[in-house]
Write a structure and sequence with these properties.
The chain has 226 residues and is mostly beta strands. The protein has one helix spanning 37-41; strands at residues 6-17, 43-55, 66-76, 84-97, 101-114, 122-124, 138-140, 142-153, 158-170, 189-200, 203-212, 215-222.
Length: 226
Amino acid sequence: PVNEKATNLITLKNRWDEYIEWVGGANYNQAPYAPYYIPNNFGLTRSVMLTRVFDTRDSTTSPTEGTRYALSGEFAGLGGDFTFNKFTYEIRHYWKVGKSQTVAGRGTLGYGTGGIPTTQQFTAGGIDTLRGYQDNQFRGNRLATASMEYRFPIAKRVSAAFFVDMGNAWYDGGDAWKYLGVTTDSGFRVGYGTGFLFNSPFGPIRIDYAIGSQGGRTHFGFGGKF
């Protein structure tokens, strides 16, 4: 901690991803993907991540007012198999409406350079980023997402929200086919819907129903909202 509002963090990563065998679906170990896929996506990652957080929210679990900024940079190549940089900026802001309603907004930007393996690329899709789409449906070395929610209580332990999400993760560079699941399409996707948060004895439980460009999807999650 720097003071009551600002915090600096240092994270050291020593991560090993190993390819075991092909089970089903597209076989990225065969032509035309081989010999690129396995060397570019499996191996040892050693990195250091520096993060600066500034937080003025009135609560870390159920905020109604204030702002949280987070800026981080991850630098890989400290003796591992991959060399890349990832920069992420996120802002969350909360407006109190009346006695018990809240409007919450969040925006996230991600920028990466170098050979980022599949499992460590930016992702979008799912309950935490882009509802109405599959978990981690979009991935790449670029990220831009935004969410807005109107939250209000409906019972003692139950609250509801109307929301809209938009954004995408995509690959900006050549030879995108070497990386599993990435796309060069940077067009924004949109999802909207309603959700419920239950404060159970085992912790918060979230249920969201969102409509995206491919139809409706129900999302389940544990833990508080952003």
